[in-house]
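User: Run a structure prediction on this.
Assistant: Running it now.
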Amino acid sequence: MHICSIKITRAGHFGYIGEKIDPSKPFICVVETESKDGKMELRLSPDLSHRILEIISEELAVSARETAEAMIARHGKDFAIGTLVLSAKFIAEGKPLINRTSGGGETAGAVKPA
C-alpha cells in the first residue's frame, strides 16, 4: 500500500473560488491510499488532522530554511534575499512561482517577472 495524496481542508470548505473559510472549523485530513486491492480514502479525526498539519508545516519550514541556506552558500546572501523577497511578492499577489503548464513531459521553468 502507498499513499497517493493527502488533502487537508477546513470542515465545511469545498474549495469554491471566493468561498469564505471559517477558521473556527476544525481541519479535516483525507488520506488516499492505493494497494493491489484498489484505492481507499481514510478520513482522520480533527485532532489527528491537526497534528498531521503541524508535522507537514514544520517539515516545509525546515525545507525552506535548508533551501535558503543552500542559496546563500551557492549564490551569496544578496541573491538569496532577492529571490526570497520576489517569491514572497508573487505569493502575496497570488502569482504562480513556476510554470506548471508546459505539458508534453517538459520540465517546468520559472515564471518570468512581469
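DSSP finds two helices and three strands in the chain.
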